[in-house]
Amino acid sequence: MSNKTGGGGDVDPVQEELAGRVREVGNQAIWSLSSCKPGFGVDQLRDDITETYWQSDGQLPHLVNIQFRRKTTIRDICIYTDYKLDESYTPSRISVRAGTNFNDLQEVEVMDLNEPSGWVVIPIKDINERPIRTFMIQIAVITNHQNGRDTHMRQIKVHSPAQDILGPPAPHIPGQFSTNEFQRYATIR
């Protein structure tokens, strides 16, 4: 676990996706929240519109739970916040936890945010500096700016490397070729 500081703003995760460096895998997960005001829930957090947001409705810590059906490689988590609009609702300390379910979550990253405006990228790595493979991610808002009680998060994206180097190797099947050049000669005429 490391402790980092982020201010946000200079990274655009959509450009990373378009360039083919990462895949957004949040749509493969089941999302749940510790609380939300009606009309300010998961749908707003995942709608790709930075003007909408999730608003919690309860005591800290506020939790976003992201559960995958299969073990998934996670490279980073991108969170869009806007201190200028949200002020005391803006998270100031976020903890990211990973595990197979709610009962075995381990903290893998803590990030302090200083009046962030824009995308904050939280790298998710193991002790060998490689992306982690997990069934579940939990994002916990530990504190907000100005000791605010409820929180706003405008968007969350979960990225996997474009090439899942940690996944199981593809089984070799005799006679099955991967390049166009070889596939041309795969059948006998």
Chain-averaged pLDDT: 88
Rg, Å, rounded:
19 Å
Determine the fraction of residues in helical runs and give it as a percent range.
under 10%
Based on secondary structure, the structural category is mainly beta
How would the global form be characterised? globular
With helices defined by DSSP (H or I, 4 residues minimum), what is the helix count?
4
Low-confidence segments: 166-172
Strand content: 35-45%
Number of strands: 12
Instruction: Give the neighbour order of strands across the main sheet.
Output: 1-8-7-10-5-3
What is the H/E order? EHEEHEEEHEEEEEEH
Q: How many angstroms does the end-to-end distance come to? A: 58 Å
Q: Describe the main β-sheet briefly.
A: 6 strands, mixed
Please characterize this protein's 3D structure.
A six-stranded mixed sheet has the order 1-8-7-10-5-3, with no helix packed on it. By secondary structure, it is mainly beta. The chain is built from four helices and twelve strands, in the order E-H-E-E-H-E-E-E-H-E-E-E-E-E-E-H. 34% of the residues are buried.
